[in-house]
Structures are given as structure tokens and as C-alpha cells.
Specification:
elongated; binds pyridoxal-5'-phosphate; 9-stranded mixed sheet; TIM Barrel; 8-stranded parallel sheet
């Protein structure tokens, strides 16, 4: 199917209400049913994000990166949609296994592994692993004939909020050494991969990385290349708008068109699929005037669902649930989390109308790297997740 027909098919299938699903009335209904703090996972939004990325990357095989959000309902929905999975730990292997996913639907992308992690992934039926250094390559000698290796190359990016090529990936110069090591030990090298960094604001580094990878593949023509894995990085709008995904992927697809025939393309999206699929609903539990600002204390903060503010450098859009008169008075306010730590501040410089204890606030775009890194510091439990199939459906289900 060509790109145009996939885009048209997608447009027909997409739900016209999907972008307005978190409307005030529906949220009020959820608030009446569930005690805050809670997160709302909308499976329709998962569909929407998956299909829009697949439409923007026709022919690319998507492996959802579990690390961004590993809720079983999200994984099951992606499985139904035909998505594959990017795994990095034994815990992730066992989670997808318990949900009926098979090893051939997965790749193991952690460049550094213990032997028992390799063994467990092999036992599960996953045979594609990522390697980016000599010591890691040696770990695979005893698995010659059982594994297919993908070598991860580093392409640093100033345009990504989280620069993942700082920590992982070999240089292009090191690549032939790793390929030689593998081949002289009877191990199949079948692909190259990279991750130019998460929340990439521009596709430029990814495009350059694709071109450099293709050039490297052509030079190393003693390898039977089967895959090019272009990683994650696809951005979503937080407080700042980003490029629409269809536009972001145009130059990516153009660069991929230069790949020699017969090489399959993989991508490992996490954030793009999970971030918009979840919101967080919190209450104001305390209020204090301190100097010129009013401090509002919420029932969750950066040690909980807002943990991505610390670990992922994300700034979530956050707004009161009650209707706000845009012409009314606004006051300098601070939104703080509930713990006893002073670092637990969700928003320092926010202008809000007068709010009261008991009022509700909604954080949007809160699916990726939020619950995944939340703690229970101070013995506050992590927010529960309310799964909705359709936010207008009265039979919402709490997990
Ligand atoms: C190996 C790997 N693949 C995929 C991802 C997902 O990236 P993103 O959330 O930017 O799509 C990550 C994120 O850390 C990663 O480390």
C-alpha cells in the first residue's frame, strides 16, 4: 500500500472526537467516581497515536518502547493493533510474555546486559539483541548461531531534550571492529540502530543518522544487512508546540528511501504513543499565601506522577478543571507536591485565578516517563490508573 492510501485509510478510521476527549463534563464524571490523585489512560488515544505514527512512517515496523509506560492495558491494545515491542529488561520480557506476546514480535535493545538477561530473552524466543561495545560483543560468543545482533551507533543531538547517544552507541569508526569480532566468532550481525535522543525537536539529526548508517552499510558489504532501526525520538507537544508528526517524518521517509532494497526498517517509539494517552487528575489539598505568591499544595507531585519533570525534563501543561474566565483576575501562584521535600514543586511561575482547597487540576500529556519513574517517597502511593475505552462510556474501569 502506498503512503497516500495509508494516510487516507487512517483519516477515515480516525475518531473525530478523539482530540477533544478530555472535555470538562467527562472529567467531572470521573472525578465524581475516583479519589484523586489518579491518571486516566485513554486507549482510543493509544490507537490514534499509533495509527498517526504508522501513517507518517509507512512500511516501518514499529516496536513500542515499554520503558515509557508499561501499563498492561496499553500493551494489550498495541498488540491488537499489530504493534511490536522494544524490551530492555527481564521484567519487561516477563510482562509481555504474560500478555501473550511472542519473542519474534520483540527486539531487545539494551546495549548493556547481564548474561542472565540474555538467557531469559532467548528463552522467551527473542533473538535480536543490540550491542555497542567490545565487552558486550564477547558476551554473545557462546550464543553464536542463536542470536542476530544489531549494532547501535551514536549520533549526538543538540535538538533532543534527552541526549541518549551520550551514554550509548559506538562511533562509526568502531563499527567495523565490532562487525569483525562478530563474524570471526560465527555471530550474525544483521542490522544497525541508533537513537538520536528523546523528544527530538527537529528531524535533522535522525535524517543525518539514517544517511550515515546507509553509507556505512554500503561500505561494509561483507555483511548481509537485514534491518535498520531508527530508534525513538518522535516528539509530542508539552507546553511548547512541536512539529506535527506527518511533517516531522517527511524528511525521515525521504532519507529512508535511499536504503538498498530488502532492508527492513524498524522504529522504537515510546513517548509519541504513550505521552498523549494519559492525563493526571489532582486536587488542591492546602493553600498558603507566602510573600507575593499563593502556594497551592497538590495531592501528587514530582515524586509521583510528575516525576518526569525531574527525570525527563518535561513541563506538562496543567490547568484547573473549573471553568476559568480569561478576562478575570489571575495571581502569581506556585503548585507544589505533597511531600516534605522543597524540591517537590510542579510549577513555580504560573498565573492562576483564585483557587480553593478541593479544586481539581488536570495535567496533560502525562503518559510517558511519568508513572514509569514515580516513587512512593513519604509513603505516598503512586497515583492509580483509570483505564477508559471511551471517556464518554459510563463503564470506566479502575485498575
Ligand atoms: C533504546 C531505546 N529505544 C526507544 C526509546 C524510546 O524513545 P522515545 O520515547 O523517544 O520514543 C528509548 C528511550 O529511552 C530507548 O532508550
Amino acid at each position: 500500500m502506498d503512503k497516500q492510501s495509508i494516510v487516507e485509510q487512517f483519516a477515515e478510521e480516525s475518531h473525530p472526537d478523539v482530540l477533544q476527549q478530555f472535555d470538562r463534563a467527562s472529567l467531572e464524571e470521573l472525578v465524581a467516581k475516583h479519589e484523586t490523585p489518579f491518571m486516566v489512560l485513554d486507549l482510543e488515544e493509544v490507537d490514534y497515536q499509533y495509527k498517526s505514527l504508522q501513517a507518517a512512517l509507512p512500511g516501518v515496523k514499529l516496536f513500542y518502547a515499554l520503558k515509557s509506560l508499561s501499563h498492561p492495558e496499553l500493551i494489550k491494545r498495541l498488540k491488537t493493533l499489530g504493534c511490536n515491542f522494544d524490551l530492555a529488561t527481564i521484567g519487561e520480557v516477563e510482562l509481555v510474555e504474560s500478555l501473550g506476546i511472542t519473542g519474534d514480535q520483540c527486539i531487545h535493545t539494551h546495549p548493556i546486559k547481564k548474561d542472565k538477561e540474555i538467557k531469559r530473552a532467548l528463552e522467551f524466543g527473542n533473538k535480536r539483541f543490540v550491542v555497542d561495545n567490545i565487552e558486550e560483543m564477547k558476551k554473545f560468543y557462546k550464543y553464536a548461531g542463536q542470536v542476530e545482533l544489531i549494532i547501535r551507533v551514536s549520533f549526538r543531538s543538540k535538538q533532543a531534550v534527552v541526549d541518549l547517544s551520550r551514554k550509548f552507541g559506538c562511533t562509526l569508526e568502531e563499527l567495523p571492529v565490532l562487525v569483525d569480532m562478530a563474524q570471526s566468532n560465527g555471530i550474525d550481525v544483521v542490522g544497525l540502530s541508533f537513537h538520536v535522543g528523546s523528544q527530538s525537536i527537529s528531524p535533522v539529526t535522525q535524517v543525518n543518522a539514517i544517511r550515515s548508517s546507509i553509507a556505512a552499510m554500503k561500505v561494509m558489504n561483507n555483511v548481509k544487512w537485514k534491518f535498520l532501526d531508527i530508534g525513538g525520538s518522535f516528539p509530542v507537544s508539552y507546553q511548547e508546540e512541536v512539529m506535527p508528526i506527518a511533517d516531522f517524518c517527511v524528511p525521515v521517509m525521504e532519507a529512508l528511501a535511499e536504503l538498498p532494497e530488502g532492508i527492513e526498517i524498524f522504529a522504537e517509539p515510546g513517548r509519541f504513543i504513550s505521552a498523549p494517552s494519559m492525563i493526571e487528575v489532582v486536587s488542591i489539598v492546602g493553600k498558603a499565601k507566602r510573600g507575593a505568591r499563593t502556594w497551592y499544595y497538590l495531592d501528587d507531585g514530582v515524586y509521583g506522577g510528575f516525576s518526569g519533570q525531574m527525570f525527563d525534563h518535561a513541563k506538562y501543561p496543567i490547568a484547573p478543571l473549573k471553568p476559568v474566565d480569561p478576562m478575570g483576575e489571575f495571581y502569581p501562584s506556585v503548585l507544589a507536591g505533597p511531600t516534605c521535600d522543597s524540591i517537590d514543586v510542579v510549577a513555580e511561575d504560573i498565573e492562576l485565578p483564585e483557587m480553593e482547597v478541593g479544586d481539581i487540576l488536570i495535567g496533560k500529556q502525562m503518559g510517558a516517563y511519568t508513572l514509569a519513574s514515580a516513587t512512593e517517597f513519604n509513603y505516598y502511593p503512586k497515583p492509580k490508573v483509570v483505564v477508559v475505552e471511551d471517556i464518554f462510556d459510563p463503564e470506566t474501569q479502575a485498575l
